[in-house]
Design a protein that fits this description.
CATH topology of the largest domain: UDP N-Acetylglucosamine Acyltransferase, domain 1
CATH class of the largest domain: Mainly Beta
Strand order of the largest sheet: 3-6-9-12-15-18-21-24-26-27
Helix content: 10-25%
Length: 256
């Protein structure tokens, strides 16, 4: 299961059925769970914990030190969950003491070729990062969010659940849950209708989200006024409450 040309540190811990391809290098402090397949020419540096049934494709480099000039060699790590697909040339860097020293990847994510996930990022579950997404430090990406090819994400941005960001879009402010964002300069285009439909949101749910989003998109209405109107009209609807809470907790402002 382990190619004879692979180099594995004696301090690495691999489950019995882990597969490692030719010329891969696995460093000290790396833990890999059962069923995970590491392709050829992969470099894994610790401290890092990788869960079960992940598939890591050739030339990925995971667990490298952060590209942060304030980093002074403090102990930090990467944590990767289960059932992720990490394609060719992906880079994922360890965290820094500016946050909690951890870069986290959840479960069942598709991370396509040439994606970069910088230090202290948190990726949820069931997310899609298309080819060449470039993610700066401290970004939070919530469950079921999708980023198109070559999307660039500014540091400290929060990306809400079930949203879709179109390819080539630069993201400098937070992206609302359930939204569709795209453009040379990122703009809120409406609701991620197709994505919500595919995930089982019924017509009534999608309609309520669409109506709430229209208030936020109204150029003649202040965001605070839109939030108040949304709260009064939709009450305790959990999806709408999520949008309101997201807006009110935003530190970078919302992409509108």
């Amino acid at each position: 299961m382990i190619a004879p040309t692979a180099i594995i540190d004696t301090d690495a811990k691999l489950a019995d059925d882990v597969q490692v391809g030719h010329y891969s290098v696995i460093g000290a402090g790396v833990e890999i769970g059962p069923g995970t397949v590491v392709g050829a020419h992969v470099v894994l540096e610790g401290p890092m914990k990788i869960g079960a049934r992940n598939r890591i494709f050739p030339f990925a480099y995971l667990g490298g030190i952060p590209q942060d000039i304030s980093f002074r060699g403090e102990t930090s790590r990467v944590e990767i969950g289960d059932d992720n697909t990490i394609r060719e040339y992906v880079t994922i860097h360890r965290g820094t003491e500016k946050q909690d020293c951890v870069t986290r990847i959840g479960n069942r994510n598709l991370i396509m070729g040439y994606v970069h996930i910088a230090h202290d990022c948190t990726i949820g579950n069931h997310c899609i990062l298309a080819n060449a997404v470039q993610m700066a430090g401290h970004v939070v990406m919530e469950d079921y969010a999708s980023l198109g090819g070559m999307v660039a994400v500014h540091q400290f941005v929060k990306i809400g659940r079930y949203c879709f960001v179109g390819g080539f879009t630069p993201i400098t402010q937070d992206v609302l849950p359930f939204s569709l964002v795209a453009g040379e300069r990122a703009r809120l285009r409406g609701v991620n209708k197709i994505g919500l439909q595919r995930k089982g949101f019924d017509v009534q749910q999608r309609g309520r989200i669409h109506k709430a989003m229209r208030y936020l998109m109204n150029p003649e209405m202040k965001t605070s006024t839109a939030v108040e109107r949304i709260r009064n009209e939709f009450g305790d609807d959990p999806d709408i409450r999520e949008i309101v809470d997201f807006v009110q907790s935003s530190s970078r402002g919302i992409t509108l």
